[in-house]
Amino acid sequence: MNFASGGDVLAIVLAGGAGTRLKPLTTSRAKPAVPFGGHYRLIDFVLSNLVNSHIFRIMVLTQYQSYSLIRHLSRGWTFSSQLSQFCETIPATEGQNKGWYLGSADALWQNLTYIRRDRPRYVAVFGADHIYRMDIRQMVAEHERAMADVSVAVIPQPRSEASQFGCIGIDDTGRITSFVEKPANPPEMPGRPGQSLVSMGNYIFSLDALERMLAEDAGKEGSSHDIGRDLLPSWVERMNLHAYDFSRNIIPGSNPNEVGYWRDVGTIDAYWKASMDLIQVSPEFNLYNREWPLITAREHHPPAKFVFADRETSRIGVATDSLVCDGVVVSGGLIDRSILSPRVRINSYATVAESVIFEGVDIGRRSKLKRVIVDKHVRIPPDTVIGYELDADRARGFTVTESGVVVVPAGATFT
């Protein structure tokens, strides 16, 4: 296989998720389009993994609230057609049956004509909303060695959280012996109390196996047409389904503490925790790995600016343990353990701690924010306090999670 070009692999990125548990961040955007890490969108992580793995034939299947996602892809993910490279966006209504996708398997079925058109040997089907680095070539190579029909990337997770995922049983060779989607009582890994082996939602299909599986599922009455819920469980005894151990995936330039890092940011609390991972002194997920760069669409902004150093009145522009993007102006405010996206302005005497501030937000003088996520272009008036009195934040109509993270939605107004 020619890994240098990735010519035998066609990647399908499933990017139609509504992300209902991430609302209000997903009220007007698809989950893969949610900003993360200041500059990026969630979809940038899977696309960067594909490109760094020399896979340049990519189809992105969109559905829910797709405008901002398509806009982002068109501005940041264009390849060379002369080299047979592409990153194509296919909305649900463009599928073979011209209808809304019923599930992940149905999304593949509706686009099977397009998949066949590119004559791939393998089809990599990946989700668009997880935070991780992965050399997909290593997974494809193991798929070949195992002579697998389907390979599923797997990772151990706490049993208490495993009911959110597909849970897998394997034998000594790595062959999958059972696959149960989101079980109420997740099976425990042998010899690893409190841990379950779960699917990351990343698959390598041999093309002929994929065609057989989709054709059978399309005509099956009562199927929800989902890869994890329907496709894999029904074929686990009839095909060679192989578990790929993600913890063995080695990324150039990575640190030992990054091995096996994978986060599903499906809830506000999970999103906030993954964001806080980025600002640690020795982060588990390092944005600064130049050997496996993260790629995104960027606008041109001036450098970040910190102004005022009046110690007598504590009017000092300071950021500690934080990520600060281009175009930010910290005008006499204090930022600690936070992420400031492009064109954020922090005005004098304001304090922002353990927070994620999206693009274009203006935080007024003397305001205090702690453990807050603020969506784009919100103007927070002077003397506003958020994250300190949660009942008051709920009374304003803000989302407050079980752990006390407050979300200020786009378009929020203050009285």
Structure description:
This protein has 415 residues and is an alpha/beta fold. Helices cover 19% and strands 28% of the residues. It is built from nine helices and 31 strands. Strands 5-4-1-6-11-8-12 form a seven-stranded mixed beta sheet, sandwiched between helices. The protein has a six-stranded mixed beta sheet with strand order 18-21-24-27-31-30. The chain has a five-stranded parallel beta sheet with strand order 14-19-22-25-28, with no helix packed on it. Helix 3 (104-110) crosses helix 6 (207-218). The longest helix is centred in the middle third of the chain and has 12 residues, at 207-218. The radius of gyration is 22 Å and the shape is elongated.
Rg calculated over all Cα atoms: 22 Å
Helix content: 10-25%
Shape type: elongated
Indicate the proportion of strand residues. Answer: 25-35%
Major sheet details? 7 strands, mixed
Instruction: Please tally the helical runs, counting DSSP H or I stretches of 4 or more residues.
Output: 9
Secondary-structure class: alpha/beta
- What is the number of E strands? 31
Query: Which runs of at least 5 residues are low in confidence (pLDDT < 50)?
Result: 1-5
Average pLDDT works out at 91
| Widest β-sheet, arrangement of strands | 5-4-1-6-11-8-12
Whole-Å distance between the termini?
62 Å
